[in-house]
TrEMBL record:
<keyword id="KW-0813">Transport</keyword>
<dbReference type="GO" id="GO:0005886">
    <property type="term" value="C:plasma membrane"/>
</dbReference>
<dbReference type="InterPro" id="IPR051120">
    <property type="entry name" value="ABC_AA/LPS_Transport"/>
</dbReference>
<dbReference type="Pfam" id="PF12399">
    <property type="entry name" value="BCA_ABC_TP_C"/>
</dbReference>
<protein>
    <submittedName>
        <fullName>ABC transporter ATP-binding protein</fullName>
    </submittedName>
</protein>
<dbReference type="InterPro" id="IPR003439">
    <property type="entry name" value="ABC_transporter-like_ATP-bd"/>
</dbReference>
<dbReference type="InterPro" id="IPR003593">
    <property type="entry name" value="AAA+_ATPase"/>
</dbReference>
<dbReference type="GO" id="GO:0016887">
    <property type="term" value="F:ATP hydrolysis activity"/>
</dbReference>
<dbReference type="Pfam" id="PF00005">
    <property type="entry name" value="ABC_tran"/>
</dbReference>
<keyword id="KW-0067">ATP-binding</keyword>
<feature type="domain" description="ABC transporter">
    <location>
        <begin position="16"/>
        <end position="258"/>
    </location>
</feature>
<keyword id="KW-0547">Nucleotide-binding</keyword>
<dbReference type="GO" id="GO:0005524">
    <property type="term" value="F:ATP binding"/>
</dbReference>
<dbReference type="InterPro" id="IPR032823">
    <property type="entry name" value="BCA_ABC_TP_C"/>
</dbReference>
<dbReference type="InterPro" id="IPR027417">
    <property type="entry name" value="P-loop_NTPase"/>
</dbReference>
Length: 263
């Protein structure tokens, strides 16, 4: 019985299979030969100290940076590496938008209607037509409800509190209904209450999809992630369930710090 060449060690085909992925910036390898299997339906966290290469890896997976070397295969064997962000989104791999890309004067409802319209492949032709956008109103309401913004759907985005803006980012990514959802520090800058709300939200929206998240908050990682990949100096230091990697002395030294060692 030969091993499946597309499979991982345990025989299942990962939804994303990253091999030898590298990105060089003027001779400096920010991501250095990363191998990563992301299991379908899992929440997979990327963690590591500042400068470890998490954001660069994230940008390589979503097309915002082109790799210097390596490959990112979808389970259907399509290659993502080197494609544009739009092409990768169309292939079902989408990242959450950043607050900085929200339109200050548009409401969450309008943002979502536009995102849904763009997802039809008809592009921005709907931009000026409220009537055309109205066909997406029902789905927009569902998404607002899903992320807890039902009461704030009609206010300009720039007047939303920080946590609500981040919730809108998530809703915009969900509007694309991706198979693989990438979240870049979804709880960054949040107070405890918003962190808990966001964790609960991610737990809800992971149903039926795969989530990859870059996250500094180890409590969030412990709560959400099925597997954790720890990066250091652009390489994979270790990978495994949080309960295992948190005890690894290399991780403790590299990242978690002595305060995380069990006493
Ligand atoms: N455009 C760039 N040009 C040159 N160097 C870069 C560029 N982008 C990232 N780097 C370098 O690559 C390394 C990895 O950066 P990256 O932002 O991916 O790390 P990170 O793990 O996301 O860090 P943080 O947790 O601080 O966000 C850093 O040393 C950074 O200075």
């Amino acid at each position: 019985m030969g091993a499946d060449p597309t499979g991982s060690a345990n025989g299942t085909v990962p939804i994303l299979k990253v091999r030898g992925l590298s990105r060089e910036f003027r001779g400096f390898l920010a991501v250095d030969g990363v191998d990563l299997d992301v299991a379908e339906g899992s929440v997979h966290a990327l963690v590591g100290p500042n400068g470890a290469g998490k954001t660069t890896l994230f940008n390589l997976l979503t097309g915002f940076l082109k790799p210097t070397a390596g490959s990112v295969l979808l389970s259907d064997r399509r290659e993502l590496a080197g494609r544009s962000p739009e092409a990768i989104t169309r292939m079902g791999v989408a990242r959450s938008f950043q607050i900085t890309s929200l339109f200050a004067e548009l409401t969450p409802r309008q943002h979502l209607e536009l995102a849904l319209a763009s997802g039809t492949g008809l592009g921005w032709r709907f931009w000026r037509s409220d009537r055309a956008l109205a066909r997406f109103a029902g789905r927009a309401e569902e998404l607002l409800d899903q992320v807890g913004l039902a009461d704030q759907g009609g206010v300009p985005a720039d007047s939303l509190p920080y946590g609500s803006k981040r919730a809108l980012e998530l809703a915009l990514a969900l509007a694309l209904d991706p198979k693989v959802l990438l979240l870049d520090e979804p709880t960054a800058g949040m107070g405890v209450e918003d962190v808990d709300r966001t964790s609960a939200l991610i737990r809800k929206i992971r149903a039926g999809r795969t989530v990859i998240l870059v996250e500094h908050n180890m409590n969030v990682v412990a709560n959400l992630a099925d597997r954790v990949t720890v990066l250091q100096h652009g390489k994979v230091l270790i990978e495994g369930p949080y309960a295992e990697i948190r005890h690894d002395p290399r991780v403790i030294t590299a990242y978690l710090g002595d305060s995380h060692v069990d006493r």
